[in-house]
Amino acid sequence: MIDLAVFGQHPLAELKVFEKLPQVHASCIVAVDEKCRQQILQNSKNFPEGFNERLFDLGALIAGSLTPPDGATYVYVCTTGDEAAAVRDVEAATKLKAFGLFRDGVMRRAARARWLVEESAIEVSPELKYAIICLPRSGSTFLGRELKSLGLGDPIEHLRPFVAHLAEHKDQFGFDVLSWLRFTIYAACQNGVLGTKVISSFAWRLVPHLSADEREQILQLLSDFKVVYLIRRNKFDQAVSDFIAEKSNVWHLWNQEIEDGYAEKLSAISPDIQDLARRYRWLVEQEQTLGALLDQRYPGHYVCDYDDLCERPKQCVAQVAEFLGRRPPEKYLETPLSLKRTTTDVHRALSEALQEHIGAATG
Question: What is the pTM of this model?
Answer without folding.
Answer: 0.92
